[in-house]
Design goal:
heterodimer; A: mainly alpha; B: Rna Polymerase Sigma Factor, Chain: A; 0% strand; disordered C terminus
Chain lengths: 186, 198
């Protein structure tokens, strides 16, 4: 079937819409009686027309208006949230704008201070002195520890006392463990 | 409260005054979206969005014109946008028809009639899905809402002659689909539905 049989195809559509003048309608009817192609077109379009006009109306789920109202409220609250986010963002940017120059200027001042010869010499001396003190303290601790060790090893009473203290501690720990296990019923 | 009173109060900022309008037009707008999009979930979303847009643009509404037509205009334009965005997948008429909508308005239908109507709905959706969005909206507005050419032109933002042209083209294309593929399930259903009506 072809639907290019002008002007009758157009007339068929107008006729289905009720817009075809009476005279042309009579001419169309006469043509349809003779032309199989246009008669098929008429039949197909009329069938389609019936199919559509009898088609049911789809309905939404119950509670459509309630869902709409909820969505409307949600949508109306969004601008507030947006303004809140914008305020927070601008606040953060503002804070950064304030803090950053202060921090940078402080850093710059420090760099300039360190860059001065007198300051750098003082800083170097201070660091050198601190290092020397730390090394001296470590050396003193090492000498003291070594002296005590040598003394303990050369005096049997000391290391025997140390061994006895160690054994007593181990025994105490063992006893406490047994007591705790008994208390738990194990 | 009349429709115009509801509109006036809603325009003045009374949200509750818009609810009766949603109640009154929910089925019409939902059906339009369902027939355009072919999916119940998408139709719900689109119908909700159409009402939200209508509420937001209420100040632009001209009270001397039909509120229903204005609402349909918003809904159909939104659906056309959705269809364009999803890059419409042309459904083959040989494919399984879209699932029939679970809630169709039928005044006390019998089981056989219910089945037939659901199949009929599936047939129409299968045919509509093959049309361009603009042509589809013409058919939906013409057949489900019985809008005049002038009203369709107003809702579509086009001229009456363009409406006629598109409507005729869309109808011709659908008739050709039915005639060209008579052995497909959709076409068989169409014939079955017609036979049932006789």
């Amino acid at each position: 079937m072809t639907l290019t049989h002008k002007p009758y195809t157009e007339w068929i559509q107008l006729a289905l819409d009720g817009d075809l003048p009476t005279e042309q309608r009579a001419e169309l009817d006469a043509h349809l009686a003779e032309c199989q192609s246009c008669a098929s077109t008429w039949e197909a379009l009329a069938r389609l027309e019936r199919l559509f006009t009898q088609a049911p109306l789809a309905a939404p789920r119950p509670g459509f208006t309630g869902r709409f109202n909820a969505r409307l409220k949600q949508q109306r609250s969004q601008p507030k949230a947006l303004w809140g986010a914008l305020a927070l963002g601008f606040g953060a940017i503002g804070s950064a704008a304030l803090v950053l120059p202060i921090g940078l200027s402080a850093l710059w001042s420090l760099v300039q201070l360190v860059g001065q010869p007198a300051t750098s010499a003082a800083l170097f001396n201070s660091a050198s002195t601190t290092t020397q003190v730390a090394l001296t303290l470590a050396n003193a601790l090492f000498i003291t520890g070594r002296g005590l060790g040598e003394w303990a090893l050369s005096t049997p009473l000391v290391w025997l006392a140390a061994l006895a203290a160690l054994a007593a501690t181990a025994g105490w720990l063992y006893y406490m463990r047994r007591l705790s296990l008994q208390g738990l019923g194990l | 409260m009349t429709e115009q009173e509801c509109i006036a109060r809603a325009r003045a900022g009374d949200e509750t005054a818009f609810s009766p309008l949603v109640d009154a037009y929910q089925s019409a707008v939902y059906n339009l979206c369902y027939r355009m999009l072919g999916d119940a979930h998408e139709a719900e979303d689109a119908a909700q969005e159409a009402f939200l847009r209508a509420y937001a643009q209420l100040r632009r509404y001209d009270p001397t014109r039909s509120f229903k037509t204005w609402l349909f205009s918003i809904a159909s334009h939104y659906c056309i946008d959705v269809l364009r965005k999803r890059r419409l997948t042309w459904l083959s008429i040989d494919d399984e028809a879209l699932p029939p909508h679970p809630a169709l308005h039928e005044p006390n239908p019998g089981p056989e009639e219910t089945t037939q109507r659901r199949e009929q709905s599936a047939v129409i959706q299968a045919f509509l899905a093959r049309l361009a969005p603009d042509d589809r909206s013409m058919l939906v507005l013409r057949y489900w809402y019985d809008l005049s050419y002038e009203e369709i032109a107003e809702a579509s933002g086009t001229t009456v002659s363009a409406v006629k042209s598109r409507l005729h083209r869309a109808r011709g294309a659908m008739a050709e689909m039915m005639a060209a593929e008579p052995r497909t399930r959709a076409a068989q259903l169409a014939l079955a539905v017609e036979g049932w009506k006789r």
